[in-house]
Protein: Glutaredoxin 3
Amino acid sequence: MAAFPPGAVRDVGSEAELDTITSAAKTGVFFWAAWHEPSKPGGQMDTVWNKLAELHGPTGVRFARVEAEAVPTISERFGISVVPTFVLVEKGGKVAYTVEGADAPALTQKVQAFAAGVTEAAPAMESAAAGAGDGGEVGASGDLNARLAKLINSAPAILFMKGEPRAPRCGFSRKIVGLLEEHKVPFSTFDILQDEEVRQGLKTYSNWPTYPQLYVNGELIGGIDIVQEMAQEGDLAEQLGVTRAEQ
Structure:
């Protein structure tokens, strides 16, 4: 791999290349998409990222850029479901900070802390004994699971996505909406950006760490990769077991 000049931003095209970078130094990774104006080359957040590289690159932090949809293996590895997303990785691969969205002040603050060696404090955890003593933790978990089950079964086909069908907030959500509409699959949606409890809880409930997630008749079908494969194999609505929407 070519030299990594201080202050430069390197475009990364493979997991192996990224691993080589992160194994040698603290690294900031910027996930972007060509369809998202603020994050594409020359956009607002791209400009901010380049400026941060100029400021903090000489301190030993490396700055990388990954086109999220072009290198899905890296995006899936870090659970990327919205662009822009910035992941700050300690030397060796441990994630120190993650910043989602075009929030330049928050990004600047996190990069400054990262470069200075300040790590994000983990949330305080109550002891298992305390949780069991008052029943609060168990009750809260049970309430959330009941709510998730109700949501999943609220429509024959429901898509948990970032944004809405007419205004998706990530490329993966945009793609899966396009496939479902192209194949005349009737579906409802839930915008997980509007409910952090559902966003985090559903990943555990379904044992599926990324979004979007498609459910049919209360059963998890999967994300964009699985739906794409099904669409390539034939009639998507028929495979999902739903009635095609009228023309």
